[in-house]
Amino acid sequence: MNPVNILLVDDQPAKLLSYEVILEELEENLIKAQSAREAFEHLLRTEIAVILVDVCMPEQDGFELVSMIRQHPRYQNTPIIFVSAVMLAEPDRLRGYAVGAVDYVSVPIVPEVLRAKVRVFADLYRKTRELERLNVELEARVHQRTAELEASAAQLRELNEELEHRIDQRTREREEALAQLFEAQKLDTIGHLTGGVAHDFNNLLMAVLGSLNLLKKRLPADERSERLVTNAIQAAERGTALTQRLLAFARRQELKPQAVDFFRLFENVEDLLAKAVGPRIEIRKSIPADLAPLLVDSNQLELALLNLFVNARDALESGGAVTVAAAAAEDARPTGLAGGNYIRISVSDDGEGMDEATVSRAAEPFFTTKGVGKGTGLGLSMVHGLAAQSGGSIQISSVRGKGTTVSLWLPVAETFVKVQPPVEPPATEPLKPASRPLAILVVDDDALVRTGTVAMLEDLGHLPQEASSASQALEFFADGQGCDLVITDHAMPGMTGAELARHLRSSFPGLPIILASGYAEFSEDHGVGRMLRMKKPFTQEQLQAAMDQAISGKVVAA
């Protein structure tokens, strides 16, 4: 227990000594003052717990001193005990209480009484100070706890905001992923739809071309009529070329690199590219005629050019120009390219351009800035894949507000593979009538195609018969009828041509079969790998050549 300070005020040294003797048992700090001035000096320098004041003093009596002490803010609640050697009347006591005294002790002093009263007030002082200290500590702890709670609340708010942000971000990502999935599914659906439409269109072209060719042979000598029929045949042949492009897109064929003359390739697709970008966009080109051949899949390169032109068109909403340039790559090549010679093909536009962040992601699959429904985000990724699979690379440079340049680095053909020049087909000889008429079964679910094929066979002097399905063809053989050759369509409802051929081979191993289809390529999962095949639409000359191969046993692709 820490001792407290007790101030003893009396003008007589003997009385101060007696107080000191009586109170020394309390083991407190006793401070003595013989005047009011000396008492105030101690009060201003030291924290006092209890004050004992003599009532009768020469300069200032106890009442005046206590009144002055109470005016000091620090001692307004300090216990003050009056000590009086004379009997005070009741009004004097009331006056003492009025000025601020809390108790009276009369002389002669009873030591036990004085010690008891001083001890009570000293303990009260200690407990008051302890309570004040505890209050300060409590306030500090409350303040600290409040600060911790506020910090926790702020952290919780930040976590909630971050969680909401992450939820919003994940929601956007999910919506974008769903949109991308929808676009991918739509692209796949378009591929299947394109293949189906092109197949049906090939059947129509088959009937048109066959009929026109037969009609041309039977028309009387009339230059104007011949010119009209020839024009119709050329239009149908252009339609055939168009369906081949559609089917190539639909089947997503593997790359077949070969030596490609880019100058001629661009000339062949320039009209298509012009139609793709529209009349408000000018196409400029800088392609030398003596450019070295490229080692690339020509069909996929055409598709890559189409994708780049469509992207340029979208960047040129108000019109402008697209420039195609090709030259031997002599400047710094992209990192990762193997040694050798390369041709750099660049497609540039003067459109709105892209910022760095967009350029860095431009070749990512499904990344697009065109919005849902306006682009799949696969165009540049397909171009990038073509370049990578061809042993080349792609570079994209763009400046916001100035335009974009996409450069394809493709290998020169002679550097990597020595491509044999294509063998020119022999000049078409006039068709010779067959040595004998052949009995031929024509199987096709399309009546127009059957009619056209039968007409071409009859014109060649053969004896064709018709079947509108594979089941009818099987019934034909089940009835005991026979033929020298079967020409069957591949894609038919119920049983396909390949399945029909497999059934016929098991029963008639030596029967020649020609499989025709309006699709770009045949599936190898029906055992048609070694079967003679033709692609629709075919001409009478191609039909005759396939028949000759089938009859002679030369099973090669038509």
TrEMBL record:
SMART domains per record: HATPase_c, HisKA, REC
Domain Response regulatory: 5-122, 439-551
Ranges in a coiled coil: 16-43, 121-180
UniProt KW Transcription regulation keyword: no
Chain ranges of the Histidine kinase domain: 196-414
Catalyzed chemical reaction(s): ATP + protein L-histidine = ADP + protein N-phospho-L-histidine
4-aspartylphosphate modified-residue sites: D54, D489
Superkingdom of this protein's organism: Bacteria
GO molecular function (one): phosphorelay sensor kinase activity
Keyword terms of this UniProt record: Coiled coil, Phosphoprotein
One Pfam family here: HisKA
Enzyme Commission designation: 2.7.13.3
Class in the EC hierarchy, top level: transferase
UniProt protein name: histidine kinase
Organism name: Rhizobium changzhiense
Taxon lineage: Bacteria, Pseudomonadati, Pseudomonadota, Alphaproteobacteria, Hyphomicrobiales
